[in-house]
Amino acid sequence: MAVAVKICGLTEPAGLAAAIGAGARYLGFVFFAKSPRHLAPQAAAQLAAQVPLGVAKVGLFVDPDDAALDATLAHMPLDMIQLHGNETPARVAAIKARTGLPVMKAVGLAEPRDLDALWDYGLVADMLLIDAKPPKDAELPGGNGLAFDWRLLAGRQILKPWLLAGGLTPENVAQAVRLTRAPGVDVSSGVESAPGVKDPERVRRFIARATAPIL
Ligand SMILES: O=C(O)c1ccccc1N[C@@H]1O[C@H](COP(=O)(O)O)[C@@H](O)[C@H]1O
């Protein structure tokens, strides 16, 4: 099975078209005001109108309350919710029940004891996104272009389908897949020409390298 690719933080048509054309399976739209990739739900919906069936539109939220989820979903037809904050397992389950959508929970790794969270969230989420833990003073809980030590995942059984994220680029993604055997990968800043602006050529190169057969 080819590695599934998610391109996250799409904000404009050129990046979106490059991701779709190159075979991305998931497209991420950020609904977190502090992010340079933030979109209003109406703008995201306009962009998402170009997304063909079979490519999942993922809404990225950070500790959203119910009102924020309802307001976004009123305008933007999402296929999946990504939770990238400090949501507890109970909150993940509640959001899944409220929205009726599959939920992907981001889990940050920096050291072996962080691995326990993969089990806790694996019991309630439909998918996991395994990212680097953000630095303590970071503005953003993700999208920082930071990688973690991929060897932490060596030989690990993960309860649910998962994507590897954090500091991935066209230059390192093949090695990341080879070391972790990740079934999927997710990237934001590593395929940008400026914060919030995807570089179509880097998007295409990332997808080609991520999905190339492992040698
Ligand atoms: O992309 C963002 O702006 C963002 C904001 C808040 C939470 C998560 C965010 N992005 C997610 O983080 C991963 C890793 O990003 P990067 O590739 O290291 O830049 C990204 O794949 C998004 O899912």
TrEMBL record:
It catalyses: N-(5-phospho-beta-D-ribosyl)anthranilate = 1-(2-carboxyphenylamino)-1-deoxy-D-ribulose 5-phosphate. Keywords: Amino-acid biosynthesis, Aromatic amino acid biosynthesis, Isomerase, Tryptophan biosynthesis. SUPFAM superfamilies: Ribulose-phoshate binding barrel (SSF51366). One of its GO terms (molecular function) is phosphoribosylanthranilate isomerase activity. Pathway: Amino-acid biosynthesis; L-tryptophan biosynthesis; L-tryptophan from chorismate: step 3/5. Its EC number is 5.3.1.24. Pfam families: PRAI. It comes from the Bacteria. Residues 5-207 form the N-(5'phosphoribosyl) anthranilate isomerase (PRAI) domain. One of its GO terms (biological process) is L-tryptophan biosynthetic process. Belongs to the TrpF family. PANTHER family: N-(5'-PHOSPHORIBOSYL)ANTHRANILATE ISOMERASE. This is N-(5'-phosphoribosyl)anthranilate isomerase. The gene is trpF.
